[in-house]
Amino acid sequence: MFAETTIAPTCSLAQDITPEITLASQWFDTLRERSRSALGVTRASFGEGEQMAHDLMAEQATRLGLEQRVDAAGNLYLTLPGRDRSLPAIMTGSHMDTVPDGGNFDGAAGVVAGMAMLARWVRAGLVPQRDITVMAVRAEELSWFPAPYAGSRAAFGLLQSHELDDCLRPDTGLSLFHHMQAAGFAPERVRAGEKQLDPARIHCFLELHIEQGPFLVQEGLPVGIVTGIRGNLRYKHSRILGQYAHAGAEPRRSRHDAVMAGAEFVQRLEALWLELEQEGKDLVCTVGQFYTDAKVHTMTKVPGELRFTMDIRSQDNALLLEIDQRLRVIAQDISARRGVVIDLGDFTNARPGLIHAGLHAQLLSCAAALKIPHVAMASGAGHDSAVFSQQGIPTAMVFVRNEHGSHNPDEAMEIADFAEGLRVLIAAVEHIDEQG
């Protein structure tokens, strides 16, 4: 399966995609126009914007004569039937929601690419050997519900019951269960763990996505072939307890300063990062929040409490768990010396998404055969592909260059770069289908 073969650039589908790029441009423009917000675009999970995007793709699927299915969690499946429907399907796709006032391409590029690919098959009058399905996933963005990969995990019966009730959308204060039910879906079936997708019926999953960092821009390359999806440790409720005191009267030797302790902890986190990076380890570390209570702390008080968060990511989950232990040792050392209590709290652990070696090699071969400049690279952000990979489904990803990063209104993917990524996706899917 997915032998690492050299691919000749002979397939007609991967060459002339001008009509499909025109369609994709129109779909991107429509998505933007119908979801404009104050600064960018907003397509809230289980909100009007996300539903609009799903409806648009369903409308295009009707025009193309594709089969359609919506599962209990609201995920949308658009399928070009194959000649032998007993074979497991090739799947592609991504999510359609955005962060508040985000960009137009994060997630949507993967669904639009899949639909453009199917439009090309239909226009050419070709029928694949096996089904090819585009999945528009619900609720990938954590901005709306703090449940990672809510839509894709629900599809595999993995969304926990408490998440349906405890995850509240910040703009409404209402639960994921409520929003799923109000949108006309069946959260009670999701709560029961009913599987909407059977991993045994999926031959592979390929996801095209904009790069959400600057690497491809810095390298001057339009396409990246992903080597792995970083997992993470997330500490949401870390805090340091010291002792409030007068800023002028308390000597240094008797202070229990929570902020100074926090500053040392962050410096030692960075030192650990540098140490591991020099050893060739894949790692990124972020302290996203770092604050005192403005209602209690003032300029003239030694701070007695500090709260902070950490997001630590790597393709190596064993390394992540090792870092947790080392950070707790560091916290104990600082606490003892500075007379404070550093409580890192519990963490959540999203395991890395492994990329299938054979699929990765095929994507590289396709890009080379099509003479598309590219590079192999890790994905720093999480993607629904990780969920497919964790189900034992062969999974791979294509990144498309994108100016100005992601999760902001200034996302600026060039349609010419998108076309290059689409050509790689089409060539890979065609080759996989030919392999049987």
TrEMBL record:
Annotated Zn(2+) 2 binding sites: 106, 141, 407
The EC number(s) this enzyme carries: 3.5.-.-
Organism name: Lampropedia puyangensis
Protein name according to UniProt: Hydantoinase/carbamoylase family amidase
Gene3D superfamilies (UniProt xref): 3.30.70.360, Zn peptidases
Keyword Iron recorded: no
One annotated GO molecular function: metal ion binding
Top-level enzyme category: hydrolase
Highest taxon in the source lineage: Bacteria
Entry binding sites for Zn(2+) 1: 95, 106, 209
Keyword annotations of the record: Hydrolase, Metal-binding, Zinc
